[in-house]
Amino acid sequence: MSYRLFTDGSCLGNPGPGGWGAVLRLDGEDDIDLSGGDPHTTNNRMEMTAVVRGLDQTPAGSEVLITSDSSYVINTMTKGWKRKVNQDLWAELDRTVGERRVTWQWVKGHNGHTENERADRLAVGAAEAIRDARPAPIQASMAIPESESSESISKAPGETAPGPGGAADNDDEPRLTHLDDTGAARMVDVSDKVETERVAIAGGSITMQPKTLELIRSGGFEKGDVLAVARVAGVMAAKSTSQLIPLCHPLPLTQVVVEFDDSVSTDRIDIKATTKTTYKTGVEMEALTAVSVAALTIYDMCKAVDRGMRIGDVRLLSKSGGKSGDYKAR
Fold first, then answer.
1. Which architecture, in CATH terms, is 196-328?
2. Given 10, 81, 95, 110, which residue has the most CB atoms within 10 angstroms?
3. Is the Cβ–Cβ distance between 279 and 198 less than 8 Å?
4. What's the rounded Cα separation, in Å, for the pair 219 and 254?
5. How confident is the model at residue 181, as a pLDDT?
6. Residues with catalytic annotation?
């Protein structure tokens, strides 16, 4: 299959809130507009992300012509420019390009190229949406379970708010690392963290009528093999977590495994996802996203015969690696 991919990135401040945009075209089909953003990023990272996320929407082995006004991306990929920064995204770009037959085309930006201007509007719109999305300060009266990516805070009205660096006046007091001193959302800076091998396992389940489970086992759905499609959906979701969960970092995943167990009950399928990376932050969110989307895919494929299916018990089972150490659910 042959695709055209038009990409662009934008950043309001550089660094600052940024967005990326992509227009994906397959002959004979309607164009697909793609976009996303990051609260604290750079223009170069958004240009790279646009290409990676666009390629992720094409099948492996496909032929893709990428049109971009980014000399940074195109010359690095075609002329061997040095890769001094953004190693995580270069690894993702190498992977996605290596799985496809890619041709590059540079165009001058803001020069009337219809699709390039369209990708630019998508990128700028995503950046502006993130810039303008500043939530009101949050106060919590009950503790939230602590994790590496979202630590807890138990603060009664009138107590001291976290300081400018995200830390409370008392460094021993737990805090939400994704909020600054005004209560605005922010991405945690992980540049000083050490890269380590990290593994996360998440679980969940979907409950249904016994006859629905029998249809899944026997391949009785017109849409195809339910669990095979759900497995692919879970893997794709893990790879797209940073586009679904606003403050998650894009990670160079080294493995995603989605498993199903339909032998535990006559009316339930248990789902487990394992994610791995060697990076500066954990992969818990990727595992949880994989489980959630796999369950949603099962629901989508089976809803014609059973709209009462229930998705539940989605949780982190274990994680390893990183400064916070290992965790195992009780």
1. 2-Layer Sandwich (3.30)
2. 10
3. yes
4. 31
5. 55
6. 300
